Amino acid sequence: MELMSEWPFCIDTVLKTDRMNKILIKGGTVIDPESEKAQRRDLLLMNGKYIDPTKIDSTTEIIEAEGHYIIPGLFDLRCHLNQSGVSFQGGVDLISNKASAGGFTSILAMPKLSSMADNPETLQYTKESIINESHVNIHLTGCLTLGAEGNRLAPIGSLKETGIIAVTDCPNCTQNSQIFSKAAEYASMFNLPIIELPRDYSLSPDASAHESLLSLKMGLKGFPRIAEELFVARSILISKYSETKIHLSSITSKGSIGLIGKAKEEGVQITCDTTANHLYCIEKQIENFDPLSKPLPPFRESEDQAALMDAVRNGIIDAVGTGHQSLSFDDKSKEFDIAPSGTLGLENAFLQIFSKLETNTIEEKLTLISRIMSKKPAQILNLEPESFENNKLANFFIFNPKGETIIERKIDVRGSVNLPYDKQQFKGEILKTVARGKLIYEK
Amino acid sequence: MVEKKKSFLGIQHLAIQEINSLLDFAQEIKERTNSGKKVNASLRGKRIVNLFLEPSTRTRIAFEIAAKSLDADVISIAEKSSSLTKGESLRDTAKNIQALGADAIVLRHSSPGSAQYLSNIISVPVINAGDGAHEHPSQALLDLFTLREKLGNLNGKKITILGDILFSRVARSNIWGLLKMGARVTLSGPSTLVPKLFQDFGLHVTYDLNTAIEGADAIMLLRIQHERQTQTHFPSLEEYSKMFGLKNGGCKPSKNCLILHPGPINRGVEIDSTLADNDQSLILSQVTNGVNVRMAILHRYCS
Q1: Is-above-0.90 flag for pTM?
Q2: Measured between CB atoms, which of B89, B169, B201 is closest to A219?
Q3: ipTM over cut 0.90
């Protein structure tokens, strides 16, 4: 309850979820992920599932959505559930709330849970005690190596049996190429994609910023583009060699885009994402040594940002995630190079992309967003994308493009500290989010 | 509401007028001291806390002498004798020092940006005595002071900075200061320690020692921090000395060229003893001037 008090809408949520029988979402424009078209149509939900919209009756509750868009629930490919200063369950609740406020209905949890997801027991416990109860769909990954330390393979087959849908050591990166290559081969036997946050540690020791003129001026140790690109190239070559599916997470460098584009042309089974924060921010964000703004990987230069944006449009980048990592003020309030890396992303990701993407029409923009933030993430993980077909469980959010949203740091509110910026006003507002058939957020 | 006082954080964002004014003031202090006159006790009753969380001899002692010369009460804290060893954060340590009545904190810390970070947390002035590889502004001021004393106006003068530029806060602060004074700055040293990207600061980078020192009005040597670099950034101290060391027998600056070094010197590595101790060398003048310059800084920012 202590956590609930920080989220007034939670109480509302609990009440509403119980009385959600027949609900008509009326007059909105639906962004259909399958046809990738915007269609004005009504949606009728019964017990959380879509049914024939003509079957309304006198008890049907009506939600007016005139002028609003109904968008398939977003799917985050990189979310870190662990956070200090709060119980694991409390952290998952906070993340669920942030996710729902940002239009996310599914997240992929990185393997650092209450302990490392390198054994079936941890995963089973997490699943039964926490994940099954959460408001949003939380999908689990398992470690690629024991403890995500990069030395010995984790029991990937046993982890698969407990329900993981991908393997990764993220935010760590397996440095040993033999282990990484064998893990890719081994995981492919179970049809599990490997996710890698590419980084050569030997080329970026103690790095806390993008290697550039700015890091040189600030005296910070740099994470050069090549430290990412070298491991992007490694993944491409290993994917090609072992004919395995590898997904590269949180790509930031323009050089990586070139490598991935070429590999895709050759038919290599490589996919990648970047984060909404990296599409929105550049290295300038840290020029005042603000530890709250310190992300992982680092923000790079405007030329990288432009290359990432182009790649989102032309499909070289398959998906956009958040890299959401909630850190407390105590964790973050340290000297810049010592402070842990990581920024918040769930609440702000959609609004950032909506403000940054340039398209001819709003419909075109929302269709593209629904592709990169909902459909593709599911496909990368071998899951069925969201759809508005009858009998499907509802996962969507209602968006008013004419509204406004202010996203700001609240140092005294858990899970609201480490936004990459202090305060931003965005066009548009997320009005309601429905996940697993239940209304879980209402503005 | 107590008004927040200005901190002394770095040369990069310091206006040229402020730099010149500090140097002029340091000059005045030096002249008064040399002529036996008393310097105004402008910090009487003020508590200056030297929070030195990295080893330092020259800077710490110079700040202590400077503060005492202005009649301040000086308290020096080293990392090993502070609660930082018990896991207290810099944030809390500094807040406690402020609560104990400090009127200014002189900070030496290994993290770039730590002085700025602290200045955002506490309301008393923070004097940056070196923050990681970011800035060492009092060192740069004393170097500028020493150069100005010998060369006069630095506009158009060729000043070469030689050695480990990449990891050096002294180099960065001096680059900003020298460029603001209109000097022509050349950097040299192994390419691994002098990235070409430094050229974008508006200076010249060369890996040829002869080109670097030819026609130089002064050479500023930097200490090779060999403990962490011999394995990855250059092969050995012997090779460094052979390629980039200043020595009588090999690559040697002209007789009129001044030699500076912020210390501590690795004799026989960056420079031969015969050169370090001859008339061209300003190494000890730098140390002496350091007191006057720090008196000027403390007076301006803490009184």
Answers
A1: yes
A2: B169
A3: yes
